[in-house]
Amino acid sequence: MIIKNAIKAYELIKNDFPIFSKSDVYELIEHISKKKYDLLVLNPNEELQVNFFRKYLKIKVKLKKGVPIAYITKNKMFCGLNFKINNKVLIPRNESELIVQYACNFLKNKKNIKVLDLCCGSGCIGISTVYLNRKSINKITFADISKAALKITKQNNKLLNLKNNVKFIKGDFLDPFINKEKFDLILCNPPYIKYGDLNVSDSVFKYEPHISLFAKEEGLYFYKKMFANIEKLVDISKPFNIIFEIGWDQKEKLEKLISLNPNIKYEFKEDFSKLWRNLIISNK
């Protein structure tokens, strides 16, 4: 079979995988054809190479097994930026862009801010935040327990040419920072799924790194550790934000824990689907 243009390619893939979004399909077409996403969307009659179908059939086998598109293309758009990824890091999600949005709100009209992207993975959250707020941020530190994840973060940092003061730290969550360095803004999308959670899709469970997904103590371990060490990581007498992503069903338990600290303010935020998705901790 010869697939002459992007329209035919779109119809083919959408027919095979009806659940794929328009952007999913075009990302696949871009990957196979080596033609830019924007060009394909704006010019759906753009001609494709004669071996497109043969290449697609090889990828289709992986897709049928549940391999995520992003692990096939090795790329994922996040906050309008293109990030390199692999199966050593979580695939950036749309809802995680909310962390960047709240970070931008905090950074407005501020200068010389020190940022920590904790559990950084691909670095998409921290890099996007710096990219959108270059004049506000003096230094950003990326931290992860995974050496492989930090390698991807470094690649993305280089590709997006961040010229701010950048540091990369391999370590176990807060251990490299407690009583050593304080930050104005901490961004954190930690592992927060409890072990045995039946809501995790087969594709996520099978292909995404478990070290980035699951946490002990019913998924609350990393939040508890942060709550116990807030004043060792930020100066609570000055403006600061700690912005977390959380599980949609964790608000009540987290609120009981964070409310025990009388020295800070906190606010829970919903995502696009009206599910609890973020916790923002700040100074009183």
UniProtKB/TrEMBL annotation:
It catalyses: L-glutaminyl-[peptide chain release factor] + S-adenosyl-L-methionine = N(5)-methyl-L-glutaminyl-[peptide chain release factor] + S-adenosyl-L-homocysteine + H(+). Its EC number is 2.1.1.297. Keywords: Methyltransferase, S-adenosyl-L-methionine, Transferase. GO terms for biological process: methylation. It is an enzyme of class 2 (transferase). It holds the Pfam family MTS. It comes from the Bacteria. InterPro entries: DNA_methylase_N6_adenine_CS, HemK-like, N5-glutamine_MTase, RF_methyltr_PrmC, SAM-dependent_MTases_sf, Small_mtfrase_dom. Residues 106-195 form the Methyltransferase small domain. The keyword Transferase applies. One of its GO terms (molecular function) is peptide chain release factor N(5)-glutamine methyltransferase activity. This is peptide chain release factor N(5)-glutamine methyltransferase.
